[in-house]
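Is this the right way to post structure tokens for a design question? Let me know if I should format differently. Anyway, here goes:
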């Protein structure tokens, strides 16, 4: 789990490599075009490697829960104490997400689309489901997907006079049409809810939309993704051999991938990460199971696993890595310029973004390694 979590956090931290700028520096180069595509979110429909960061992080929260519950049971911890911790953890995650989204803003920016906030909003429900039997977990998963699909499908489409340019920003060829238009950007049920909810908080001006299309209510299908992780965590604990685990994860992963693809292809539900559609839950969940199977095969079957140490250092302190990437990136970069000259990275020419990014990644990893060596682990 630490290796998979570390891989996910490394993908997020690697944004400092600024591969989009490298693509601009080498126009028409297929290599940089490919890397830049997978270090960015797709405009609306579809999937890149970068789009799998948040579902993987959410999925792994669910994977870890059965182990946490087993540990609490082994300590004979009172039931009320576990619930209290779950509520406190949920509050801290939501608050930390709001804090990070407020960086650089003139006042507290009350939005709840950050990964940590999304996990926090659903965590208490996940904790409760973790104490129930398997059939209740599957039932909750299906109910969440069907209910969320219905909420969007039944929300009326905008009239002919609607100003799409004011809230949408999608190119005409990117906008879903027909029945799939119920999942268009900033014209859907989740967008409407946010226009009401977020304007209840103090803000400098009226909240019209999230320019990326992200929404608070995405925590509902994100909870479904965490339930998939909960199921996977249960299988990790109960399936006794790595081969059985790998076979189960691969079979379930392929089934979910196919289901998500089919919903998108038929137009019944587009595959959109930004609003976490049910098709996205299935499609991204399929990838999460396949990635988990891959790490299980590499690390639990007797193969040499020393290579994973780099990832484990990051995964063991994922919260510190997530928050640190937001808080100290500018400080580290400015420190190099102060002590080694303003043009310290300019000598690399067109590779300047890559050179500065690799330097920052090394510094981030060394900080996490220092914490790992001293057994300093940030937990919520």
């Amino acid at each position: 789990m630490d290796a998979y979590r570390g891989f996910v956090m490394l993908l997020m931290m690697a944004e400092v490599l600024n591969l989009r700028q490298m693509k601009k520096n080498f126009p028409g180069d297929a290599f940089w075009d490919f890397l830049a595509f997978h270090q960015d979110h797709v405009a609306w429909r579809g999937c890149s490697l970068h789009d799998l960061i948040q579902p993987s992080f959410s999925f792994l929260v669910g994977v870890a829960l059965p182990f946490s519950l087993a540990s609490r049971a082994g300590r004979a911890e009172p039931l009320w104490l576990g619930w209290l911790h779950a509520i406190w953890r949920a509050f801290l995650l939501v608050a930390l997400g709001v804090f990070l989204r407020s960086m650089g803003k003139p006042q507290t920016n009350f939005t709840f689309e950050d990964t940590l906030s999304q996990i926090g909003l659903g965590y208490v429900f996940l904790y409760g489901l973790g104490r129930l039997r398997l059939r209740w977990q599957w039932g909750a998963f299906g109910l969440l997907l069907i209910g969320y699909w219905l909420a969007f499908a039944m929300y009326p489409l905008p009239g002919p006079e609607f100003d799409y340019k004011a809230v949408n920003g999608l190119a005409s060829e990117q906008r879903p049409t027909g029945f799939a238009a119920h999942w268009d950007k900033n014209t859907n049920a989740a967008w409407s809810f946010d226009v009401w909810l977020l304007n209840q908080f103090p803000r400098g001006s009226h909240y019209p939309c999230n320019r990326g299309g992200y929404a608070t209510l995405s925590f509902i299908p994100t909870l479904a993704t965490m339930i998939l992780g909960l199921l996977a965590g249960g299988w990790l604990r109960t399936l006794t051999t790595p081969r059985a685990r790998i076979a189960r994860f691969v079979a379930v992963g392929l089934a979910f991938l196919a289901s998500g693809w089919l919903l998108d292809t038929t137009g019944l539900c587009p595959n959109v990460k930004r609003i976490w559609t049910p098709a996205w839950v299935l499609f991204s969940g399929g990838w999460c199971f396949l990635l988990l199977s891959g790490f299980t095969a590499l690390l639990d079957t007797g193969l040499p696993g020393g290579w994973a140490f780099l990832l484990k250092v990051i995964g063991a302190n994922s919260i510190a890595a997530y928050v640190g990437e937001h808080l100290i990136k500018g400080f580290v970069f400015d420190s190099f310029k102060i002590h080694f000259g303003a043009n310290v990275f300019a000598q690399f020419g067109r590779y300047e973004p890559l050179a500065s990014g690799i330097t920052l990644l090394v510094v981030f990893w060394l900080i996490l390694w220092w914490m790992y060596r001293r057994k300093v682990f940030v937990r919520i």
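Format looks fine. Someone answered above. Worth noting: Residues 2-373 form one domain. Residues 81 and 163 are 51 Å apart (CA to CA).
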